[in-house]
Amino acid sequence: MPRSFEPEIVGFLCNWCSYAGADLAGVSRISYPANLKVIRVMCSGRVDPVMVLEAFLNQADGVLVLGCHLGECHYISGNYQAERKIKMTRKLLQKIGINPNRLHLDWISAAEGERFAKLAEWFTSQVRKLGPLGSSEELKENELKERLVAARQTVENEKVRWMVGKERELMEMGNVYGERVSQNLLDFLMDKNLFDEFVKNRIYLLLEKRALSVKDIARKLGLSPREVLRRIAKMEDRGLIAMTDVEGWSPRYKALKLSE
Amino acid sequence: MGRENDQKVGAVLVVGGGIGGIQASLDLAESGFKVYLVDMSTSIGGVMAQLDKTFPTNDCSMCILSPKLVECGRHLNIEVKTYTQVKDIQGNAGDFRVNLVRKPRYINPQKCTGCGQCAKYCPVGASDTFNENLSERAAIYIGYPQAVPLAYAIDRDKCIGCGLCSNICLVDAVQYSQEEQEEVIDVGAVILAPGFEEFDAHLKGEYGYGRYPNVVTSIEFERILSASGPYRGRVLRPSDGDIPQKIAFIQCVGSRDETCGNNYCSSVCCMYAIKEAVVAKEHVREIQPSIFFMDLRAYGKDFDKYYQRAKEEWVRFVRGRVSSVEEMPQTQNLKIKYEMDDSKLMEEEFNLVVLSVGFEPSPGIQTLAQKLGIELNEYGFCKTYQFSPVETTRPGVFVCGAFQGPKDIPETVMQASGAASCVADLLSSVRGSLTRERIFPPEIDVRGQSPRIGVFVCHCGINIGGVVNVPEVAEYVRTLSNVVYAEHNLYTCSQDTQLRIKELIKEHNLNRIVVASCSPRTHEPLFQETIREAGLNRYLFEMANIRDQCSWVHMHEPEKATQKSKELVRMAVAKACLLQPLKRLELPVTRRGLVIGGGLSGMTAASSLAEQGFEVYLVERERELGGNLKKIHYTLNGMDVQGYLKGIIERVRANPLINVYTNARIKEVAGYVGNFKTTIIADGAERELEHGVVIVATGGREYQPEEYLYGKDAKVITQRELEEKIAHGDNAVLNSNTIVMIQCVGSRENERPYCSRICCTETVKNALKIKEKNPKANIFILYREVRTYGFREDYYRKAREVGIIFIRFDEDKKPKVAKGKKALEVLVREPILGEEILLRPDLLVLSVGIVPQPDNKKLAKMLKVPLNEDGFYLEAQMKLRPVDFATEGIFLCGLAHSPKLMDESISQAYAAASRASTILAKDKMEIEGMIATVNEFRCTGCGMCISVCAYNALELDEEKKVARVNEALCKGCGACSATCRCGAIDVLGVSNEQILSLVDAL
């Protein structure tokens, strides 16, 4: 890795606290690395995981999401929502083999100009240490892109989005039966849904390029053939893929073109 | 309610909604009883719904089952109660009070349309038990796509209560507040049909099930073969999705096995293994299946032929016991070690291993049995007696199907009908007391009116609407000629839309209705009923299937799907223009039965009908009643047959409703269902009998052997002759030193390729009897395969334990029998030693088979019913119509159908009576309106139509020389019309013109 590497960092800052905090740093002339490019959003809860992945797909090496301190959100509870979404997105990054430390969520108040500058510096140096996106992960460019595309599709999935959106309510207020759902169970289900969706998307992307057998796919994705097989039939049911031929004793599948 | 006079209740509880429970319910509801059909799961269908194909015809299981599911679900007098269990039962035969508990399904089944959107979005996964855990389903689910009722349920153990399904559901069917509900019902009788559970293969650790992914059970493999299964009907192995080239089937897993306590034979595994092997090969020609077995028990009707065919299809059969299965780490293939017949140890590698798991009583049955106060046998199945195979130990509680003992589908269906008949016997005095009939307003006369068509296009939530532009379709439909009204609905099948349709018919004077939605196979009757309620004839209805055959299959091509929908609706409208009201004729029914044959089956059927209050003619060719039973003295478990026979003859003779004609024969049969006229000659005098149904119970005969010196040496006798001698205490027999018995004499040979089913059991029975009287006797049984299926296996094992020696021979190495100097000499090749051994018996007993009555052909011709290749009568459909003929109103039972044991004949006789009573229970029968019609001016009387009709519904009018349709028999298939040379015959409701209008509107 060349020593001169300078990471590209995108920051999503909420209008009311963290963006104001960043302004304060400016007013106070507290400098911090130029790597950070800030995008203003009205609330940290507005940051869609799709945006985060889109940032990574557009050459960002790190993504910073900043909101008001917990309990102080201008929109009452938006930052709690942000917390769930970023937690999920970090989990997803981990699953797809990207260092989750490239995504950081923190709280900055309008008065914390200095803290903001320090945070920016700290995060920049951390990402600098990690190197360009993909390098610490030892992923080739193509592979990296494919995983990110699959991940972006994953966070677009309605099930996943519903789970994220409902998590707090289910844990703190109770579910439709009036029972509270444990963090462990929700984590487990979230993991499973993320993984299922991601794998499905990856299989689809692989099969878009060429026909592969269950064993081929498993090898490429580092999964057991059994896990792949369970998904293949479901994908075929949904009209995403179809069997093309049999190579030896192994049927091969290819993605179908979707008009949408 | 009239209960002061008669304490009986005209309703029946059927426990278990598998094929047995379904058949019993349909029979009972059709013959005038209110039925509560209770099932523990969320839908009815049972194990049969899980099967891919059925032996020995390879019929698709779902194709034959689903019409029955739909009929059950829609029947006015069957209340299907799913997710429900019996909590308690009190009272006596004729008047029980039952407490039921219904688990909350959290879905309102009246509202749920089964569209499935909820399951698509549910974030919680669960193992799909219908697919034997080989795939996943959501926490909100239906059992299977064709489930009845088609309503989702929430798996409360899995659901996290996130509320997404309620959010998704467009008809507000989700009700998280549902709670367990108790309900009390009064019934006159109970039928238990709870089915079975597959043996848990984990318990046979040596086969590696649960450890090795490529070791699956037979029911799992059944799902793998199924098109709706986990691999969409591709034969793949679970470890890596490869096609398994070599598949091993291991038989008797959890059956005939003392180590797991299941000593009995599960009766069906041999056949289903053959079927699965054949079907796998049908899927992929190159697959090489091998079946490892001990005895191949293909004992049922046409089973041996199926076995032979499988051999010809290169299914390999290996007689050997598998001792272990081991996984090869690299390939995940499986190495099997097995011991051959001759004790040689072998090893072989396979890609997939299928364990043919046996039957066990379903879990929880013990608790139910306790609540019901019925006894179970030593294996936990329902205890019944030989002469009352469908009665439990508690009066008024009956049983059918696998809970009574392992059995296949037709046996289950027979017992189900049989149990229904016993219930009808008990409750005949309250028949019709609790059933309802639908009352419709008078029909509007639309003749002469020009078509005014109303079209309803369904969104089916987003099932159709998500792909097809439904409003655009409706808009397009309005431009079609004769369409005076068109609209689109979120769900056309919902209750409120039904009301709306009825109002719109009045408001716009609509006289033809078209619905564009799902499949007519499931929904046509619903809409037909709706328009009938609005006063329109039910045949003024047409459907376009724009879901199952459009939106669901073109989901990625919305524009094309919309275009296709328009075309499908256009076609339906074109046909609707030509629809005419059709009448459903009503025919009077002569409420009397004719039973041909006065043996066990005939007498049982006749008494059952008489018990139900119907007059019966019982016609017997011999002077005495009794048939073959006269020659049988005791049963396998030692019951007195002659005593029973005397009893039933007395009952038949004493019943004033049964007219017995002995020394009688059938001269002529005329008429058709409900209205037969049969001429008989009894004691030389001719008589004409009028009746509504016929039951054929003409029996079979013992084969007269020519082989093995029979008739040439007095020491060679048949099993029946032996039984006669044992019963009479013949000392020469009982004191014999050495007795040899030869099996399969006259059976399973080129000339008679079928298995006679009873001989193995009879042989074991007689051999044990001799051993009991003379323990020193040496008995050798030379056999090809011991087919003591079910609990009869216990006696086979006992026979081995008491020292009876079984020596197997192959068909091409039959024993040789010769007259020696002093004694008979029997030479047979002993397969374990591989040597020929010589036996010198004092008595040689031939186990001869059963042959059909020689005059079957003649009677079959008179009745216009078919025989199979072996000369036995051929039923309408082997699996689900085992006692019906294709020709309506004619039924069969007993040996006339195929060789069978006494208890099986009794079940079948009751079944025939039950089927017959579905006709006799009503004084009129309604006839389908879509039937053939002849244009006499065009007809040349060539008779082509007559020869193609499968139902004998056509005959030649000798005077006019034209074909005539028997409306009572015609099923409206249209084969006649498609064959007619001169366009003289057509089918009402689906006429040539109407079909062509569809084609022209393409």
Shape by Cα distribution of chain B: globular
Total domain modules of chain A: 2
**Strand segment tally of chain B:** 51
- Low-confidence runs of chain B: 1-5
Strand arrangement across the biggest beta sheet of chain A? 2-1-3-4
CATH architecture of the largest domain in chain A: 3-Layer(aba) Sandwich
Fold-level CATH name of the largest domain in chain A: Rossmann fold
Assess the beta-strand content of chain A as a share of residues.
5-15%
* Overall pLDDT of chain B: 94
The helix content of chain B is: 25-40%
Describe what you observe in this structure.
The complex is a heterodimer of chains A (260) and B (1002). By secondary structure, chain A is α/β, with parallel strands linked by helices. Chain A folds into two domains: 9-130, Rossmann fold (3-Layer(aba) Sandwich); 157-255, Arc Repressor Mutant, subunit A, CATH 1.10.10. Chain A contains nine helices and seven strands; from the N terminus they run βαβαβαβααααβααββ. Chain A has helices at residues 18-27, 49-57, 78-95, 113-130, 141-156, 158-173, 183-209, 214-221, 225-237; strands at 9-14, 36-41, 62-67, 103-107, 212-213, 241-247, 250-255. Chain A has a four-stranded parallel sheet with strand order 2-1-3-4, with helices on both faces. Chain A is globular. Chain A starts with 8 loop residues before the first strand and ends in a 5-residue tail after the last strand. With 1002 residues, chain B is α/β, with parallel strands linked by helices. Helix content of chain B is 27%, strand content 25%. A seven-stranded mixed sheet of chain B has the order 15-21-16-17-18-19-20. In chain B, strands 5-2-1-13-23 form a five-stranded parallel sheet. Chain B is globular and about 100 Å long. Residues 1-5 of chain B have low confidence and may be disordered. The chains are: A alpha/beta (260), B alpha/beta (1002). At the A-B interface, helix 6, helix 7, helix 8 and helix 9 of A face helix 4 of B.
